[in-house]
Each structure stands twice: as C-alpha cells, then as structure tokens.
C-alpha cells in the first residue's frame, strides 16, 4: 500500500513539475545545477533554521528544496536521460543533505538536553546511510534493490512532520518520529539485504555454497 501511495504521489507531482522542468531547460539551466541548488537549500533550512530551533520554518524549507530531487530527475529525462556523473552527483548530494538534516536535529536536541532524541537522530543517520548504501552496492553488483518501507522520501517526511509538530509545541513529537524512523530504517536495511540475498542465491552457479 505504501508503494502504491508513493507511485501515485510521484505521478501527481510529475504533472506539476514538468512545466517547471521545461521552462528551466529552455532557460539553459542544467539538471546538475538544480541538484546542487536543492542541496544548498536543504543546508540552509537544516543548519540555518532547524539547528537554531526554528523547526517549522526549517522543515518547510527542507521539504521545498527536497522536491528538487524530482525536478532534476524530470529535467534529465526530458533532456535525453541522466548522465553517469549526474547520477553520481545526485546520490552524493542526497547524502550531504541527509547528513545536514539529521546532524541539525541532533545538535538542536543536544542543546535541549534531550539525549534520547540525539541517540535516535544518530541511529537514523547511520541507518539511512545503510539503506542507500545497500541499494547502491547491490546495483553495482548487477542486482536490483527497489524494496523497503523507508526510502528517502518517507524518511524526510517522517522527520519533517515530527519537527513541525514539535515546533507547534507538541513537544515529544520529534523524538517519537525519530525513534519510529530509526525502527523502520533498520527494518528496511533488513528487507533490502534479504532481497539481495535471494537474488544472489538464484544467480549463484549450481553446486556453490
């Protein structure tokens, strides 16, 4: 059900961003430039606002600029497909943005003396990196890994909702969201490793252990 919702949401968003993508391409803007601009926007939202306790503003800015992930992909498709460097840059900038988001959250929670929340943020950061690494490594070995309940969009959505609610004085919301995210991220790592193991077993020559 989560996958169906995600696909439907992405299809709806694509119809919205396609005119913007066409306009940017006509203006000479490249998908790579959009990727970098989106990352800079996330850094501003996370470090400039979230880390200073402006959680609502920070979450809204991060969410807005995180949507460039869909915009640069649409632009790449319209201009003939993603290049190898474009795919590399996009993945690298995603890791930079995710690190800024969870680093900012951990920093702010530390200033509030909420060390349980800090621990949850650090688990989310580590597990989120593993979610992405397992997929990249599997694809590098010629296998697929498009499974899991906590992909990047879901992870940012969960922490964003928690940040907004905490900014609106629902105090435990961010910590609860982080522990929930930590749990589903770890589960997703397990899902992906199991999926890759099954593929590896099917690809393995008969008679090998």
Tally of helical segments:
8
Structural class: mainly alpha
Q: Could you list the spans in which at least 5 consecutive residues all have pLDDT below 50?
A: 1-5
Tertiary shape:
flat
Strand content is under 5%
CA-CA gap between termini: 36 Å
Question: Which CATH architecture is right?
Answer: Up-down Bundle
CATH class value: Mainly Alpha
Average residue pLDDT: 88
Q: State the assembly state of the protein chains.
A: single chain
Question: Would you give the CATH topology?
Answer: Four Helix Bundle (Hemerythrin (Met), subunit A)
Instruction: Write the CATH homologous superfamily.
Output: CDP-alcohol phosphotransferase transmembrane (TM) domain
Structurally, the number of domains stands at 1
Order of helices and strands: HHHHHHHH
Q: Tally the beta strands.
A: 0
Radius of gyration: 18 Å
Q: How much helicity do the residues have?
A: over 70%
Give the topology, please.
Elements lengths: L1 H25 L4 H19 L5 H12 L1 H11 L5 H28 L3 H26 L11 H16 L5 H31 L6
Helix pairs in contact: 1-4, 2-3, 2-4, 2-5, 3-7, 5-6, 6-8, 7-8
What labels would you give this structure?
disordered N terminus; 209 residues; metal-binding; transmembrane; mainly alpha; Four Helix Bundle (Hemerythrin (Met), subunit A); phospholipid biosynthesis; cell membrane
């Amino acid at each position: 059900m989560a996958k169906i919702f995600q696909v439907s949401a992405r299809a709806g968003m694509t119809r919205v961003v396609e005119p913007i993508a066409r306009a940017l391409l006509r203006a000479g803007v490249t998908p790579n430039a959009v990727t970098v601009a989106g990352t800079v926007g996330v850094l501003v939202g996370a470090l400039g606002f979230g880390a200073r306790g402006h959680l609502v503003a920070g979450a809204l800015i991060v969410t807005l600029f995180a949507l460039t992930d869909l915009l640069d992909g649409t632009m790449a498709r319209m201009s003939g497909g993603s290049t190898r460097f474009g795919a590399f840059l996009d993945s690298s900038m995603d890791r930079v943005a995710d690190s800024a988001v969870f680093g900012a959250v951990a920093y702010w929670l530390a200033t509030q003396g909420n060390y349980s929340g800090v621990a949850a943020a650090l688990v989310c950061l580590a597990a989120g990196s593993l979610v992405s690494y397992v997929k990249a490594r599997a694809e590098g070995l010629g296998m697929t890994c498009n499974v899991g309940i906590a992909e990047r969009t879901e992870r940012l959505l969960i922490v964003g909702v928690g940040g907004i609610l905490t900014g609106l004085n629902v105090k435990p919301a961010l910590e609860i969201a982080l522990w929930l995210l930590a749990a589903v991220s770890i589960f997703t790592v397990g899902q992906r490793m199991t999926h890759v193991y099954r593929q590896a077993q099917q690809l393995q020559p008969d008679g090998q252990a």
